[in-house]
Task: inverse folding
């Protein structure tokens, strides 16, 4: 067959197109992802694998958050105003068209919000991650104006709206759309399932035309293969390189707003004793783990959100590991009858970040050095989620769950509601006092909001110690000399094609 | 022959049914897929709706019964992950894996027959030792490592081949096939060599030579026919292994086949796609087994008479 193939060039692989795997360079941008998006549905854009392709490329939000400054900027909206505690008015552009030629109006904007937030049958991910269980009232005033009403005051509603991608009012409300129509600079040209996704430039785009007329995404699971594709000029950009595959020539590091930590289940002995939780915090050698396992491509962490997120507390600093004090705390707890010899299960997820298994082993060793007994359990995503989300599994003993939390919204409210509230979907315990502080911080705005959430993070470390933090992680973007792009904290979730230009 | 065929079909169908039932039940033991597909704030009602929409709220025997009914109507359900019909996804991915496995096996069999026969023709000669060393090495190399080395040396270092991908000419086939080929080729060379050494020492070979038959006719006409029976059995098993062994190749090289689809379906608890992929693979292996048995019986009359009832 290979001989015949060579002679006739009839070597097409089944289930593939014939447009050239990486595409011709020329006027094309070639991107290799670490996985195929499950869907390009805009209301699922808060999922990294979908958002990296869809957000601000195929579809666009009304408001966009600048990942560097944190400022909100108008995109499809031209202005917004808080009319009362619970009502907002939004004005939208009148010169925008969808890929199918239909004109964009306020009705489309209101429809998109309603579809993503109020439609429980559709169960959009953006609803859960960004809006929780709140419902929004929407009223279209005219073609360029509509109002939004919230059930309770929501000072960061515009920030939440930056996660809603706009779709035409004709989009299905019964089922998610795999290949959406949007207003973005690129439209879906073809999705060759399992092989590639091709976008072409939307010629009637309302904004500045992007540099490349065609974008082709392929996906390779192995980081080393993605790096190789950059080296051989098969790809211009490669997401999620591992440190060992990255060099200064083929990649750019960027802070990706992800923070790794151990979540300690405070409902089970010995983790229900704060001395034991503090001992775990003191036992961890964060600097050693970052240097030895993350190649220095991370910052030791003392809280769940990195600098740049509203609510980050600059006064919380990372000290050196103190195994002697940790051991003394464990012994003190043991003297009071706490069963410190009870085995703790450290659960980590395969592929969560580079060297995750080695990190778990390092943690196991460091905790064993202070008198705790730890066994490691590696899990896949689905199994890990069972431990991460309520309702938590019963009768599984004390669990230290290795989590990685990404706050792409840039506001601590999205972190605390999930991880610190007593009944937060990803929190094992809390206190009424901290819940109250979180609720107050949620209602605050501007500097008051920053100070209130900074206080919440300090209080969590002081009074609860549910989390023993590891590091604020960094991403590595593979990039070829053919193109110029400056990655930012949102790059992992929203790779804006319009920001990519020819030649570095 | 028809009786033989009927008995083989019945005996081969049992594992087929067991696999289909087993995958259905084991998939459901891996846990609830709800967390993967619903937002973190999903209410109890939303979770109940999701479970009801996908039949997860039913007792497992009811789910199994419904599934079998669907399969008989050629309705394989919808992927939780992509929303596409599971049958379409699997049918789109399967040919790419079959292509890879078929070409690989063809090369492995032809190469192994030539190298194995050459080695067996002069036992313990330098040629025999070289062939044995090569085949043992090939059978022992981890395919994952081999693939990555291939990418680094032939793709990045020498720039002779693309690193991965499926669009293009012959060049896109070379690394995936080489990776998939090494183990079956190594094993088959050993099997062919062993069988040929025994066959070339048999009395009928001496008779053929005494009657003046040419050496190629002796080796490839007389000895190989008898040596091919064990080789065929091993080749069949290796082919079956290739369909599943393609996972590594498909993952590394971005080959859009069923192996990668299966792994993704397992990780994403995408039951409909997983069940359909396993069903199609099991049916293919079932057919392949029957074909191997028929070839085996054609080559050796004794097989037809000793088949268990």
Result:
């Amino acid at each position: 067959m290979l001989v015949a193939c060579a002679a006739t060039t009839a070597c097409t692989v089944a289930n593939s197109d014939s447009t050239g795997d990486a595409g011709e360079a020329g006027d094309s941008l070639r991107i290799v992802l670490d996985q195929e998006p499950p869907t390009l549905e805009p209301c699922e854009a808060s999922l990294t694998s979908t958002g990296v392709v869809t957000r601000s490329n195929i579809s666009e939000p009304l408001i966009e958050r600048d990942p560097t400054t944190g400022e909100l900027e108008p995109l499809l909206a031209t202005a917004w105003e808080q009319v009362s505690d619970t009502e907002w008015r939004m004005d939208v552009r009148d010169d925008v068209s969808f890929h199918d030629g239909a004109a964009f109006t306020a009705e489309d904007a209101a429809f998109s919000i309603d579809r993503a937030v109020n439609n429980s049958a559709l169960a959009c991910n953006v609803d859960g991650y960004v809006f929780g269980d709140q419902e929004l009232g929407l009223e279209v005033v005219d073609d360029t104006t509509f109002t939004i009403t919230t059930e309770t005051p929501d000072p960061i509603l515009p920030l939440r709206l930056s996660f809603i991608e706009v779709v035409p009012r004709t989009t299905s409300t019964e089922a998610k759309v795999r290949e959406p129509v949007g207003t973005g600079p690129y439209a879906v040209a073809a999705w060759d399932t399992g092989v590639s996704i091709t976008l072409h430039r939307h010629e009637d785009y309302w904004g500045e035309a992007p540099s490349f007329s065609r974008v082709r995404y392929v996906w390779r699971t192995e980081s080393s293969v993605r790096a190789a594709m950059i080296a051989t000029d098969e790809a211009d950009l490669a997401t999620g390189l591992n440190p060992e595959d990255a060099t200064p020539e083929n990649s750019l590091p960027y802070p990706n707003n992800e923070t790794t930590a151990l979540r300690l289940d405070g409902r089970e002995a010995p983790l229900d004793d704060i001395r034991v939780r503090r001992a775990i915090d003191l036992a961890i050698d964060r600097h050693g783990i970052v240097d030895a396992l993350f190649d220095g491509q991370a910052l030791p962490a003392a809280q769940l959100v990195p600098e740049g997120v509203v609510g980050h507390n600059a006064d919380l600093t990372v000290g050196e590991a103190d195994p002697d004090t940790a051991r003394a705390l464990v012994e003190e707890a043991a003297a009071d009858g706490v069963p410190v010899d009870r085995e703790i299960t450290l659960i980590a997820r395969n592929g969560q970040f580079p060297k995750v298994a080695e990190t778990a082993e390092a943690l196991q060793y460091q905790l064993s050095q202070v008198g705790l007994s730890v066994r490691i359990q590696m899990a896949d995503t689905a199994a890990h989620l069972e431990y991460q989300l309520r309702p938590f599994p019963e009768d599984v003993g004390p669990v230290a769950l290795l989590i990685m939390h990404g706050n792409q919204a840039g506001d601590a409210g999205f972190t605390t509601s999930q991880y610190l509230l007593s009944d937060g979907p990803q929190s094992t315990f809390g206190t009424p006092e901290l819940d109250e502080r979180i609720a107050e911080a949620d209602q605050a705005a501007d500097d008051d909001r920053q100070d209130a959430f900074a206080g919440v993070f300090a209080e969590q470390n002081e009074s609860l110690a549910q989390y023993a933090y590891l590091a604020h992680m960094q991403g590595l973007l593979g990039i070829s000399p053919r193109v110029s792009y400056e990655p930012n904290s949102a790059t992992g979730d929203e790779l804006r094609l319009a920001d990519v230009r020819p030649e570095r | 022959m028809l009786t033989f065929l009927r008995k083989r079909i019945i005996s081969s169908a049992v594992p087929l049914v067991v696999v289909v039932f087993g995958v259905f039940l084991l998939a459901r033991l891996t846990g609830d897929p709800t967390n993967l597909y619903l937002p973190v704030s999903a209410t109890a009602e939303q979770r109940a709706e999701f479970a009801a929409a996908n039949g997860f709220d039913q007792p497992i025997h009811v789910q199994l019964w419904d599934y079998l009914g669907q399969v008989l109507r050629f309705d394989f359900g919808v992927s939780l992950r992509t929303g596409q019909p599971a049958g379409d996804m699997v049918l789109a991915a399967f040919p790419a894996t079959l292509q890879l496995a078929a070409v690989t096996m063809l090369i492995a069999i032809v190469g192994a027959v030539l190298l194995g026969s050459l080695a067996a023709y002069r036992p313990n000669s330098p040629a025999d030792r070289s062939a044995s060393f090569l085949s043992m090495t090939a059978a022992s190399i981890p395919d994952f490592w081999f693939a990555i080395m291939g990418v680094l040396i032939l793709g990045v270092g020498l720039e002779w081949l693309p690193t991965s991908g499926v669009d293009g000419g012959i060049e896109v086939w070379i690394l995936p096939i080489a990776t998939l080929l090494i183990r079956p080729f190594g094993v088959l060379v050993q099997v062919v060599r062993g069988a040929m050494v025994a066959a070339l020492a048999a009395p009928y070979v001496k008779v053929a030579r005494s009657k003046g038959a040419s050496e190629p006719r002796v080796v490839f006409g007389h000895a190989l026919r008898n040596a091919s029976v064990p080789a065929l059995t091993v080749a069949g098993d290796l082919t079956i292994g290739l369909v599943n062994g393609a996972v590594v190749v498909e993952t590394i090289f971005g080959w859009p086949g069923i192996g990668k689809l299966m792994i993704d379906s397992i990780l994403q608890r995408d039951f409909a796609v997983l069940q359909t992929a396993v069903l199609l693979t099991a049916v293919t292996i079932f057919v392949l087994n029957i074909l191997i048995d028929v070839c085996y019986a054609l080559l050796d009359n004794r097989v037809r008479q000793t088949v268990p009832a």
About this structure: Chain A touches chain B through 58 residues (CB under 8 Å). Residues 18-22 of chain A have pLDDT under 50 and may be disordered. The first strand of chain A starts at residue 28 and ends at 33. The two ends of chain A are 43 Å apart (CA to CA).
